[in-house]
Every structure is written in C-alpha cells, then in structure tokens.
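Could you join me in thinking about how sequence relates to backbone shape in a protein? Would you write everything just below, so we can both look at the same thing?
***
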Amino acid sequence: MDSFVYCWTDHRSNKLYVGMHKGHPDDGYITSSKHLKKEYKERPNDFTREILTRNTYEVCRDFEIAIIKAMFSQNIPCYNLNAAGAILYTPEVREKISKTHKGKSISAEHIEAIKHWNRNERKPASKETREKIRQKKLGVKRGVLSEEWRRKISESGKGLKRPEGFGAAITARQLGKKRRPLTEEEKEKQRIAHTGHKHTPETIEKLKAAKANMSSETKAKMSEARKRYWEQKRLEKQNAS
C-alpha cells in the first residue's frame, strides 16, 4: 500500500477535488491541481481532506479515474479537469477547445516543421501499441453521420486545392508496394459490410456525370491500369499452377 486516493472539499463553493498520491497521507502533500492549490493557499480554513482508500499505485489510479468519471457524469461541481493526466472531454471542455481553435491558421513554417518531424523524427508505433489500438476498435461501429455533419464536411472541402505535385508524390510513394492478400475472414467481413448497400439515385447521377466529364487522358490511364492489373493476376495464376 504505497499510494492513496484523497478528496478535498471546498466548503465555500461546495466543490470537490479527487486525486491520488504515491506516498504517505501524512507526508505533507496537498495536491497537484493549480486551481485548487491557489484557492487553498488563500483560504485553507475552508478546505477539509478525506482519505478515500490506501492501496497499490495501480489500484489507486483506477479508483481515482472511476470516481472522477462518475463525478463528471453526474455533473458534480469539482476542481478536476482530467483523470490521471487524460482530459475528460465533457461537452463544456469540447466547447472550450472549439472556441479556442476557431479562426486560427497554421503558418507555412509550422506546417514545414510538422512535416519534418513526421518524416525524420516520428517513431513508428510498436507492435504492442498497434495491437492495443486494434483491440480497442474491434466491434466499434461508427454511427450514421447526421445531415448537419455531412453539410459541414462538404462545406469544409469546398475550394480546397491540393498542392502542386500532390498526386505525383502519392503515385511515386505507392509504386512498387504490394498489398498483402486478404484473408478469408477479411473477405467475409467485406462481403457482409457491402451486402444490401445500394447507391442512392443522387450518387448514381453524380457518378454518371463524373464519367461523362472524364478526360480522354484519364480514361487511357484507367484502361492501362486495368490491363496491368489483369496481366499481373494472370501471371500469378500461372506461377501458382
């Protein structure tokens, strides 16, 4: 039992603060919250602390997160802004983040710095991390986008232009790459996902219009791509036999 979970009560505002500390309850530790610490220094007599539990670090951390999430779900007034360092995205927090970023634009220097970091310094996720992400997403299905969301996505994409050479860069990056063949399980999942799906009349009309307006150069490229694809399939079948 090297850690404990505590709860401070602000008797003037009736706000709570739940936290965790690795140490002894009598070691003089107050809190890591800047908001609570400021109020406590100005009027310490308005606060009382209660020790909720003492246990190992892992148990106390899980207990702290559970209590903070419960407080947020029940709209209990509190000083907590996050749980174990992870921001709790309540509607109020989301609204604040949205207002903070509205109207902001990233400079060209900032964009180049991000590109440089992604190309040269960013470390690929480990196999363990990728597996955790995969397990977390298993069974999660995204709901149907509302009309409002569709409109926002449509409006945000209007007028956007790809930088010069964007398509050529993607083509060069993909050349020579081979996609692994799908497993039978993956094929079955795709089949089930597409079963019963039909294009709306509006989508069909858009596809027809796009095909009608396609340039002869694009048609020739698509034709050559299809020929290369089926030629590759034919060779693979010959090699397999």
About this structure: The longest strand covers residues 47-55. The longest helix spans residues 216-240. The mean pLDDT is 84. Strands lie at 3-10, 15-22, 47-55, 82-83, 86-87.
